[in-house]
Amino acid sequence: MSKVAYIDHSYHEKTKSTDFIPEILVSHGHEVDRFWDSSWNGGDAVEFNDVEHYDAIVLFQLPPQWPGALHKLHPNITFIPMLDGLGYTRERQLGGVSYWSKFANIKILNFSKTVHYVCNAFGLESRYFQYFQPPQSRLPAQRQGLHGFFWARREDQISVDTILALIGDTKFDSLHIHLAPDPGAPIPEAPSREICQKFTITTSNWFEKKEDFEAVLGRANVFFAPRLEEGIGQAMLEAFSRGQCVVAPDCGTMNEYIMHDANGLLYRYDKPTPLDFSKAVELGSAGHTLATKGFSHWKSCEQDLVQFILTPCENFYRIKTPSMIKECLKSIPFILHTVRNAKSLFTF
After folding, report:
1. 32 DSSP β-pair partners
2. pLDDT, tens digit, for every residue of 156-188?
3. What pTM value is reported for the model?
4. Which residues, at least 6 apart from 110, have a Cβ–Cβ distance to it below 8 Å?
5. Do residue 225 and residue 285 come from a single domain?
6. Do 70 and 317 form a contact (C-beta atoms < 8 A)?
7. 55 SS3 class
8. I need a surface site. Which of 225, 288, 323, 326 has the fewest CB within 10 A?
């Protein structure tokens, strides 16, 4: 049995969205202690002396501000980056050489293929896993008509106006908008009474019981993704598991799961135009099939994930094996494409 220190972004203490990794480690017979890092909002950070005696350290999303090179501090550290914090699919100036150099000789566990390729190009030992949630046995009750759900979590990214632009002249039988922003995000503006009547919109700001929220969410057969980018995309994956048609911007990680008009709908976030919802129910069923097959594959990879976390970094970096070189070469086309679309990516 190994003892693992799992250092996580403190916001996830509320959302529980990252619990699946510690749960897997525990189910395989290992001991996991959770440490919540609140440095992102001015709170306390996790210090190295709190975790140095553990067999393995997992850093989720937040790189620590520990002195010295990480690989010299501890023999087994795994970092789990989140794509939405790096901005590769939105052409933001993050995640360049200066960022990744701090992870030299450290293992990287990726849930985004995009970030996985970037890590390979920088010579880092990265493993990619595509996560899926357990599919629900029952598809949405609403198999006729169009019934939408949108949680306005980031008004500055995807607003109610964005959703209405995507709907255009399509007749929705119902559209529920949950007006509850993420921490620090602007408060979303409720649609006018005229707009609500025109698009059959109902709204909410709060639910006393989680079951009430889930009941409203479960009545939809079209799910509008709430953010421009996701680290994993738990809300999207939940929608897949429910058999809802997922509508998302053409950004990561959504576009790593969704094939437009095959198992969901993608759109340009900088220029939302009306989409064709005529196959929404069919697309939702295709998404549910994806979730079913994807979850089966995810379960088959659990042992590989556990082994990767528990294996010391030196075992991977002692020599550059042909397979690692092959992975680096596979990353070159992606890097060239990224540079053409975001020349400022590799900033020093």
Report:
1. 4
2. 999 999 999 999 999 999 999 999 999 888 889
3. 0.88
4. 80, 81, 116, 119, 126, 127, 128, 129
5. yes
6. no
7. coil
8. 323
CB atoms within 10 A of CB 50: 13
Q: Answer yes or no: do 270 and 312 share one domain.
A: no
| Pair (81, 203) in one structural domain | no
Angle among Cα 231, 18, 159 to the nearest 5 degrees reads 45
Q: Which two tokens stand for residue 54?
A: 């553990």
> Number of C-alpha atoms within 13 angstroms, CB side, residue 70?
24
265, 159: one domain: yes
Cβ atoms of 152 and 179 within 8 Å: the answer is yes
Say if residues 129 and 301 touch (Cβ distance below 8 Å): yes
Residues 310, 284 share a domain: no
Domain encompassing residue 107 = 3-129+301-341
Distance, in Å, from the CA atom of 30 to the CA atom of 41, rounded to the nearest integer, reads: 31
Q: How many domains does the chain have?
A: 2
Strands lying side by side in the sheet with 3-9: 31-37, 3-9, 56-60, 77-80, 107-110, 125-128
Name the one residue in this structure whose structure tokens are 């052409």: 91
Q: Which residue's structure tokens are 């082994």?
A: 307
Q: In this predicted model, what pLDDT tens digit does every residue of 23-58 receive, in sequence order?
A: 999 999 999 999 999 998 889 999 999 999 999 999
User: Which of 97, 50, 41 shows the shortest CA–CA distance to 73?
Assistant: 50
Q: Do 151 and 42 share a domain, yes or no?
A: no
| Torsion on CA atoms 38, 40, 43, 49, rounded to nearest 10 | 60
Contact 250, 267 (CB under 8 A): yes
Report the candidate in 259, 250, 260 with the shortest Cα–Cα distance to residue 229: 250
**Interatomic CA distance for residues 338 and 336, integer angstroms:** 5
What is the distance, to the nearest Å, from the Cα of residue 243 to the centroid of all Cα atoms in its chain? 19
Distance, CA of 3 to CA of 32 (rounded, Å)? 6
Domain match, 14 and 56 both? yes
